[in-house]
Write a structure and sequence with these properties.
The complex is a heterodimer of chains A (78) and B (411).
Chain A lengths: L2 E3 L9 H5 L4 E4 L3 E4 L8 H10 L5 E3 L18
Antiparallel strand pairs in A: 1-4, 2-3
Chain B lengths: L2 H9 L8 H7 L4 E3 L4 E4 L2 H8 L4 E2 L33 H10 L10 H4 L1 H13 L6 E3 H6 L1 H11 L6 H15 L7 H28 L5 H7 L9 H17 L1 H14 L1 H9 L4 H11 L6 E6 L3 E3 L2 E3 L4 E4 L1 H4 L34 H18 E2 L2 E2 L19 E3 L2 E2 L2
Parallel strand pairs in B: 2-8
Antiparallel strand pairs in B: 1-2, 3-5, 4-11, 5-8, 6-7, 9-12, 10-11
Classes of the chains: A alpha+beta (78), B alpha+beta (411).
Keywords (chain B): Heme, Iron, Metal-binding, Monooxygenase, Oxidoreductase
Protein name (chain B): Cytochrome P450
Pfam family, one (chain B): p450
């Protein structure tokens, strides 16, 4: 899956790095590193991060696609 | 309706169940003067702009003497220094940065993510604890104990001490929320006693952890030797108390408001039961629609500030009514409708700017998990009373009890 972060919008709130640490990482306090071609298995993490972004800077390609092979993380509870 | 009565009405307990019409009235004057040195800001863009304005202070020492006596400004006398919640840069930045090191990125990016399994187990245990009952109080039986347990695990409070921790947290919470007719002096004494005991307990735990650190957050706070140096004992105690109190007094309301809102919107509840992924946007909409912190009453101005045709003078007390900004029709279409499919959802539920909620990622996960599991496991849930009885507190607004009847528990 492809994603892009609008770095002009990003203000370093770091919600994505908390919620999807396999895809987003903070380098120092303000700059963001991320994988623009995240694995399908990370879709849930990525959507969690994109939704939580306080400045809505994360754009995800085809966010409504089926989760595919990725197991819904919440289903671990069951 | 005079200005004075409008603000009093918002604080008045009789309006706790539905303050939103009063906020709509407030928004007719975006920056409203209430008495000589108190200004109430109620529209989205004005609140957002002030949250990002370096001329706004969170430090009570910057209030003018006249403003210091206004509503909700009475401070608990505390032997501890102010936490970073009540400080400005550079002291705020240093303490917040030091607290973030063992909590999140860049130094500890996985702590919260790695707690997911443990959060899920705590949720499951609490729901299993409903047993054969056909009615529970979502507050006392679930949304109160859940975040307290989480904060204990995060800080590294040993399991055998958790029950004592819950007792202190309960007492301090009751002190933030005095019942009408209660003996104020006696309540104050009991609350101070709990604060003292909690402080002594934390102090002992700090001693223990500095000698034999674990991988918990308190151990790392105690032993860190980063570029910002070390926290003093007093700073450690202030910070740990802040994490404890701010970490659960708010989350309890987020989860309870969430169940209440779902039970009032059965179609959304049904969708969440079918698809747990809905929990993610749903919690964001909840933070807009029923934010756990309704207003920030503790800001002050470091200079005269011109905004929305009004000049707020230096040293005035400024209230930022987040819950009103979240319902501002200039910002959100159809704002009084709860709509988890809303795409444009930059709410003020966690504040904004340098004091944005420190625990936001943890609160998000706690609420997502809690609401998903309560919805999935309660069979035929329904409100016993609507509206439910509310806590006294107008700032940390939420139900005191939320009695929910149901037909049984699903496995």
């Amino acid at each position: 899956m492809r994603l892009v972060v609008d770095l002009n919008r990003c203000q370093g709130y770091a919600q994505c790095a908390f919620l999807a640490p396999d895809v987003f990482a903070m380098h120092g306090e303000e700059s963001l590193l991320y994988n623009p071609h995240a694995e399908a298995a990370q879709r849930e993490q990525v959507l969690r991060a994109a939704t939580a972004c306080p400045v809505q800077a994360i754009l995800v390609e085809d966010p409504d696609a089926a989760p595919g092979a990725a197991e819904d993380e919440l289903s671990h509870v069951r | 309706m005079t200005q004075e009565t409008l603000l009093r009405q918002i604080i008045d307990y009789d309006n706790r169940a539905d303050p939103y019409p009063l906020y709509a009235e407030l928004r007719k004057t975006p920056v409203r003067q209430e008495g000589d040195e108190l200004f109430v800001v109620s529209t989205y863009w004005e609140i957002k702009s002030l949250l990002h304005d370096p001329r706004i202070s969170s430090d009570a020492r910057n209030l003018s003497p006249g403003a210091a006596g206004t509503l909700l400004q009475e401070e608990e006398a505390s032997p501890l220094p102010p936490s970073f919640l009540r400080l400005d840069p550079p002291e705020h930045d240093r303490l917040r940065r030091m607290t973030m090191r063992p909590f999140g990125p860049p130094e500890t990016p996985r702590r919260i993510h790695n707690m997911r399994g443990e959060l899920a187990r705590i949720v499951t245990d609490l729901i299993d604890g409903f047993g054969d009952r056909k009615q529970v109080d979502i507050v006392d039986d679930f949304s109160y104990p859940f975040p307290v347990t989480v904060i204990c695990r995060l800080l590294g409070v040993p399991r055998e001490d958790e029950a004592r921790f819950h007792t202190w947290a309960d007492t301090i919470a009751a002190g933030l929320d005095p019942a009408p007719g209660q003996d104020a002096g006696e309540q104050h004494r009991v609350t101070q006693q709990a604060r003292t005991e909690l402080g002594m307990y934390l102090s002992g735990l700090i001693d223990e952890r500095s000698g034999a650190p674990g991988d918990d957050m308190l151990s790392e706070l105690v032993t860190q030797h980063g570029p910002d140096g070390q926290m003093t004992r007093a700073e450690l105690l202030s910070t740990a108390s802040l994490l404890l109190i701010a970490g659960h007094e708010t989350t309890v309301n987020l989860i309870t408001n969430g169940m209440l809102t779902l039970l009032r919107n059965p179609e959304v509840l049904g969708r969440l039961r079918e698809d747990a992924r809905l929990a993610v946007p749903l919690v964001e909409e909840l933070l807009r629609f029923e934010p756990p912190v309704q207003l920030l009453p503790q800001r002050t101005t470091l200079a005269d500030i011109d905004i929305a045709g009004t000049t707020i003078p230096e040293g005035a007390s400024v209230w930022l009514v987040l819950a009103s900004g979240n319902r501002d029709p200039q910002r959100f279409p159809d704002p009084d409708r709860f709509d988890p499919d809303r795409k444009d959802i930059q709410h003020l539920g966690f504040g904004s700017g340098i004091h944005n909620c420190f625990g936001a990622p943890l609160a998000r996960l706690e609420a997502q998990l809690a609401l998903t599991e309560l919805t999935r496991r309660l069979d035929g849930p329904r409100l016993v009373e609507d509206p439910p009885p509310y806590r006294q507190n107008a700032v940390l607004r939420g139900p005191r009890h939320l009695n929910v009847a149901f037909d049984g528990l699903r496995s």
